Amino acid sequence: MASFELPPIHDNPDGGWGPSTQNLPDRFKFKDIPYAPYSKSDKLGRFADWNDLTGDSRQAATSNLPASQGAGGRSGGRRRDGPQAFGSGTANAFAYFHVEDEASFSLVDNKAAGPRRGGASSFSRGRGSARGGAGSARGGWQRGRGAFVPRGGMQRGGRRGWRDWEKNSRTRESSVAISPQWQMLEEVEFHRLAKLRLDVEEPEDLDTFGRLYPYDKVYDRITTKTEKPLQLVDRIKYNTTTSDDPVIQQLASKDVATVYTTDVILSVLMCAPRSVYPWDIVIVREGNKLFLDKRDGGPFDTVTVNENATDPPQDPSTAANPNNPAEKVAQPEVPSINSATSLSLEATYINQNFGFQSVIETPPPPAIDLAKPNPFYGPDETEPLASCGYRYRVFDLGVTEDEDIKICVRTEVDAYVPGQGNPQAGHGLVTIRALNEFDSRSQGAGGAPDWRSKLDSQRGAVVATEMKNNSCKLAKWAVQSVLAGAELLKIGYVSRANPRDNTRHVILSTASMRPTDFAAQLNVSLSNGWGIVRTVTDLCMKMPEGKYVLVKDPNRPVIRLYAVPITEFTGEDEEDAEAFEGEEHESAN
């Protein structure tokens, strides 16, 4: 007969529940973990409460409290009566943290499936979700295309939730093709640029060129009820790069400065932390001089639209060319007049023609000739020149008296205001720009209100929206006006005559402001801009003679400095510039 023996009993001399820890082997992995406190009154509740998941139970879980506790002893809006469970407020090793699970969790709808039997719904009727904000509080939820969309949360002019999954995957192409032979020298993040400061004194005027026409004050009195059509005015206006400017070449031979550039290029550099779209600046160091240039047909020749909007205009998506996988081709499905490229060409056309149209070419009052004629207008030219004045000015970037670092800038003004003084001495000078409205209901409109119904009655709302959606563009305009020493900045509001037609436009209004006040309103710091310019100057002056390219990353707030061959960009195909001019001409017609 088999014998029976009782198993050994390990008594706990310290008292309490469970075996004694003194008799556990060292390899036992739960040796130093205490038993979870419990009580016989604990009950198993709902293991998944979708109503409380977004409310108190989530807060309770993160603070190691059970779902029955909640904030203030409430859960789902109902008070739980009864004694508190023993040990429920004790932090222990058995608490479950679901941080990793929540990282991959996407909330589709936090609306309750319906009221429980015998109980009220956890959502108050008429208030909506606590997480829905003011939008859902006004009307709860409605079903959109493929997603639940809060009624009040939809941006005016866009369908929130429509193909949101695709927006993060869209990437912009660089403004210039980065060659593998280029050597990256420096990389600077925008948050570092935003901390730079340099105070610069008033500039020295070297010379003036061109002819200025008086500004037509009739455009200051235009309203949405007395709109004027935008006309196509055939005039010539030059945007020559720095190295091709004959005046700058003469000034460089006299060593009047260390750095030479134009106000268009300089404003992009000074407002770099606001930029979203890619850009590039070609930098040439010859001896002890720096020349900041632009490429023909590059981003400096066009005007952006809603660059800083939450959902800016998009170009058609690109795909790999089956014949050449390295080449990207546009998908043929979405040719739109509201794409980013089409809107940029349209805005450029509007800016030029609004500036040409808003001046008086037939005296009185007469046109004013500056000290010297236009330096870019050749003897063979027959087309009339646009109203434009060039002022060559020198700014001192030296930090101490011993430093001799100056920058020579070619600045532009577009007209003068009669009766404000002598324009040749810099009095009454005006720069003219234009904002454009395309379709307030289109993707990329940035929630802009309809100008025809809001511009006269709620101009502040229109201006605030434009300052948000076009922060970088407006900042560059303000900086260009300050650099040129203009006393006024005129901004026209130009809209399409029909939202579906990008060839006919009307002028709805014109705003006038002082550039320094406008820069302060935009929170543009000129000292920060000069700090960026000085930093880039010091960076390039440390390099040997040669050619460099400063490139803004197309998808990150970063700028990079590359060393490129000296022959780079000199043999660029002229077909690119001709193709750009052809597209601009087609957009104008």
TrEMBL record:
UniProt-recorded Gene Ontology molecular function terms: mRNA cap binding; translation initiation factor activity
RNA gate as annotated region, ranges: 299-313
HAMAP family: eIF3d
InterPro entries xref list: eIF3d
Keyword Protein biosynthesis: yes
Coiled-coil regions listed in the entry: none
Region (Disordered): 1-23, 37-86, 111-162, 302-332
Bias-annotated ranges (Low complexity): 112-127, 144-153
Record flagged with keyword Metal-binding: no
GO annotations of cellular component type: eukaryotic 43S preinitiation complex; eukaryotic 48S preinitiation complex; eukaryotic translation initiation factor 3 complex
Any one GO BP annotation for this protein: formation of cytoplasmic translation initiation complex
Superkingdom, taxonomy of origin: Eukaryota
Function (record text): mRNA cap-binding component of the eukaryotic translation initiation factor 3 (eIF-3) complex, which is involved in protein synthesis of a specialized repertoire of mRNAs and, together with other initiation factors, stimulates binding of mRNA and methionyl-tRNAi to the 40S ribosome. The eIF-3 complex specifically targets and initiates translation of a subset of mRNAs involved in cell proliferation. In the eIF-3 complex, eif3d specifically recognizes and binds the 7-methylguanosine cap of a subset of mRNAs.
Ranges of compositional bias, category Polar residues: 54-67, 303-324
Comment, domains: The RNA gate region regulates mRNA cap recognition to prevent promiscuous mRNA-binding before assembly of eif3d into the full eukaryotic translation initiation factor 3 (eIF-3) complex.
Annotated localization: Cytoplasm
Ranges of Gly residues composition bias in the record: 129-143
Alphabetized UniProt keyword annotations: Cytoplasm, Initiation factor, Protein biosynthesis, RNA-binding
Entry protein name: Eukaryotic translation initiation factor 3 subunit D
SUBUNIT field: Component of the eukaryotic translation initiation factor 3 (eIF-3) complex.
Family statement: Belongs to the eIF-3 subunit D family.
